[in-house]
Write a structure and sequence with these properties.
Distance between the termini of chain B: 45 Å
Distance between the termini of chain A: 69 Å
CATH superfamily of the largest domain in chain A: Periplasmic binding protein-like II
CATH superfamily of the largest domain in chain B: MetI-like
Number of strands of chain A: 15
CATH architecture of the largest domain in chain B: Orthogonal Bundle
Oligomer: heterodimer
Helix content of chain B: 55-70%
Largest interface: A-B, 55 and 64 residues
Shape of chain B: flat
CATH class of the largest domain in chain A: Alpha Beta
Strand content of chain B: under 5%
Strand order of the largest sheet of chain B: 1-2
Chain lengths: 460, 294
């Protein structure tokens, strides 16, 4: 090879670098000078909150900047609504001006942890409910100082509490239910359960066997095993809790012993494994496309899914569709709770302003706007009444009722972050045929070791 | 005569089998790329419907470039591509310069302790980046930056924080050392006799002969920089400095828009393919000559 091509290659790369460097904007040193979101607002069906004045520059030019990180990069609807709230807040007073920086959800937590290590967190952050205790314990977050009574009517899952103080609050929650078709249940003589009278363990299991026996469906129940990650503890730990088990012992938060490997948890594990052994539910190799379309296509009789998937199912089945409460396996019906919430960075020098913004954002009209925009459950009944889906008589009203009646937040402990991963792996292993007792014992030991190595996460 | 014909027939059969196997392997390696490109032209529902049949690899059905247009609406894709080109090109250029000089100094001039230095440099290869990521973050977050605003603390949210830590690379130095050592030492001795300085020998004798290793290091530096993910999410908290791989996460919402994901992946794969195709001959030559399996 002659040297000339490489001289040319070097020259080319060098030229690209120099031109690109020359064209690059000046480095922005800190998030306090973060630019406003530059993405074009997208068409949104969200309820439009009060429009902000055309320009807020004149009124907020001397305002103190409140920096904010949000996990919704790439989500046009969330971005549009949040931009509106920020614009309204900035226009409503002259002391503070919120500037937001969007992050992709998949990498948001890592960015926050890195920001905390580098001492670079903004004033306002948003945090996924079950992770909040870890961040509060780690010293990343400060307790909220909201006006007395602000959260009185909020759904329990929207309030993030750690060490007796509220650290975060959500504008919405999510809920899961059993998606079913009334006609299918009636044709097979299966009782339609209610929140007051959910299916018992025996009823639910018998219903699955009956539906599988019809031969009309590939599987009687779609649990969504294709969705890995947080779906497992969010959607499946309530089933274990309904048996009487749990991820950790909530009386002390110092051990999982007796809860994750107790007789109730083992009973759950054996039933869980039997679902796959008996061919009642697709296993962990379920294709994501089947999860998306299996129930809609009529290949699955029942589906364990969240309110975010409800509209597509309603569109397909209309009035024939019913959203059923979680079965009661013996210790009551429970579903997961807590979604994304707003909080304040512990290092914020502007906590008063950050609290003022969060207080401002908790208005019903914004809760309703988010609900209409992204389909999640508004945090208050009064906001639900303003929405098209969750208002009394609305097609998804039942999800608000489920959140009120059955929601149980995932264990509010810093240990949850690692315990959730252990739980997910244990359930996947059991689904794939691992010995139930051995697997749950190993998971318990792993969680206990983590708690011990972190000196009890503040519970000792 | 018969023997010659049989031999010729055997050779033909061997060639056919060899080419058949190679074509099969090529198809296997091409399938993901073909699937990606074809899916980028289809709506989400059709991608799902076609995924269980051979239609997944055929441009049939509702074909359009809508997904490509959407990638620029959902995220500042052009910006991300620009950022990645800038940081990758800077790292490659500076890396070639620094690592080739380091390799030369460790391979050609004889000086006390060079073996130890080379050993120490190679020893750093056993330390995975994830191990040093947090200490490195703490360091760069406290380093001063001299800019138009004067001196500011911290390198976070800049281009240079994505470049400088990756300029010096132990594996690149090792490759240069190996390659420089394989060149005829008589050339160096002749240049020394003619009075050339070490830098002149490096620039005028060694570099012109080292095309293959420069190509190899270019590709080996280019790929991880283009695919950089962990480091950028740690040190870049502002959208305008994000690279393409962090940008990919913009498309993973609650309901993933697979068509847009495939379109975005197709766009960001093109520079990699172009780079590899441009340098593949030298890359293969270098691997063959240094005995390194890439």
């Amino acid at each position: 090879m002659t040297p000339k091509p490489f001289v040319r290659m070097w020259s080319w790369l060098g030229a690209v670098s120099l031109i690109a460097a020359a064209c690059a904007p000046a480095a922005t040193p800190a998030p306090t000078s973060a630019p406003a979101a530059t993405d074009a607002p997208a068409a949104s069906e969200a309820t439009a909150p009060t429009a902000a004045p055309a320009s807020t520059e004149a009124t907020t030019a001397d305002a103190t900047v409140l920096t904010m990180w949000y996990h919704g990069a790439g989500n046009d609807v969330e971005r549009t609504i949040l931009t509106q709230i920020i614009d309204d807040f900035n226009a409503s007073q002259t002391q503070w001006r919120v500037e937001r920086q969007d992050f992709p959800q998949e990498s948001y937590n890592e960015s926050v942890v890195a920001g905390a290590l580098a001492g670079n967190l903004p004033d306002i952050i948003d945090v996924d409910g079950p992770i909040m205790p870890n961040w509060a314990w780690s010293g990343y977050m400060a307790p909220l100082q909201l006006k007395e009574g602000t959260l009185d009517n909020f759904l329990p899952g929207t309030i993030g509490t750690w060490d007796g103080q509220v650290y975060s609050v959500g504008l919405w929650d999510a809920a899961v239910a059993v998606f079913a078709r009334k006609s299918v249940l009636e044709a097979n003589g299966i009782r339609i359960p209610t929140i007051e009278e959910p299916w018992t363990f025996e009823e639910f299991d018998a219903a699955l066997v009956t539906l599988q026996g019809t031969g009309e469906f590939e599987y009687a129940l779609d649990l969504g095993t294709a969705w890995t990650g947080e779906w497992y503890p969010y959607a499946f730990s309530p089933l274990m809790q309904s048996f009487g088990g749990d991820i950790v012992d909530r009386s002390t938060y110092l051990t999982a012993e007796g809860k994750l490997n107790g007789p109730e948890a083992i009973a759950f594990g054996e039933w869980w494994q039997s679902l796959f052994e008996r061919g009642l539910a697709p296993g962990t190799s379920q294709d994501g496309a089947d999860r998306e379309a299996g129930f809609i296509d009529g290949r699955y009789a029942l589906q364990w899914n969240g309110n975010w998937a409800a509209l597509a199912a309603i569109e397909k089945y209309g009035d024939d569709l019913v959203f059923l409460p979680a079965p009661d396996f013996g210790a009551g019906s429970t579903i997961g709770a807590a979604s994304w919430q707003f909080g304040i960075s512990a290092k914020s020098q502007n906590q008063e302003g950050a609290n003022a913004f969060i207080q401002f954002a908790l208005q019903d009209k914004y809760l309703a706007a988010f609900s209409d925009g992204i389909g999640l459950i508004p945090a208050t009944a009064s906001a639900a009444a303003l929405t098209k889906n969750y208002a009394p008589g609305g097609p998804m009203e039942v999800f608000f009722q489920l959140s009120q009646a059955q929601a149980l937040i995932r264990p509010p402990t810093p240990a949850y972050l690692s315990a959730a991963l252990v739980f997910e792996k244990a359930l996947a292993d059991i689904a794939n045929g691992a010995d139930v007792t051995t697997t749950l014992d190993a998971a318990t030991d792993e969680i206990n070791a983590d708690i011990e190595s972190n000196n009890g996460y503040g519970f000792k | 005569m018969n023997t010659t014909r049989i031999l010729h027939r055997n050779q033909t059969a061997t060639t056919v089998v060899r080419y058949g196997l190679m074509s099969l392997l090529a198809l296997i390696f091409l399938f993901p790329i073909v699937f990606m490109v074809i899916s980028s032209l289809k709506p989400d529902l059709q991608i799902m419907q076609d995924s269980s049949s051979f239609r997944a690899f055929l441009p049939v059905g509702d074909i359009s470039f809508d997904n490509y247009a959407e990638t620029f609406v959902r995220a500042p894709t052009g910006r991300f591509i620009f950022n990645s080109i800038l940081t990758t090109a800077l790292t490659v250029v500076l890396g070639l310069l620094v690592n080739s000089m380091a390799g030369f100094s460790l391979a050609i001039p004889r000086w006390r302790g060079r073996g130890l230095v080379l050993t120490l440099i190679i020893a750093t290869l056993i330390v995975p980046f994830e191990t040093i990521a947090i200490p490195l973050l703490l360091i760069v977050s406290r380093l001063p930056t001299i800019g138009l605003d004067g001196i500011t603390q911290g390198w976070l949210n800049t281009y240079h924080v994505q470049v400088i830590p990756f300029v010096a690379n132990a594996f690149s130095i090792f490759l240069f050392v190996q390659f420089f050592k394989s060149l005829p030492q008589e050339l160096v001795e002749a240049a020394r006799i003619d009075g050339a300085s070490w830098f002149q020998i490096f620039a005028n004798v060694m570099v012109p002969l080292s095309g293959p290793v420069f190509a190899t290091v270019t590709i080996l530096t280019f790929l991880p920089m283009w695919n950089a993910y962990l480091w950028p999410i740690m040190v870049v908290q502002i959208e305008e400095f994000r690279p393409v791989m962090v940008g990919l996460q913009y498309f993973f919402q609650l309901n993933v828009a697979w068509g847009e994901v495939m379109a975005y992946l197709t766009i960001i794969t093109l520079p990699v393919l172009v780079m590899f195709l441009a340098l593949q001959r030298a890359f293969i030559e270098s691997i063959a000559s240094t005995g390194i399996k890439g």
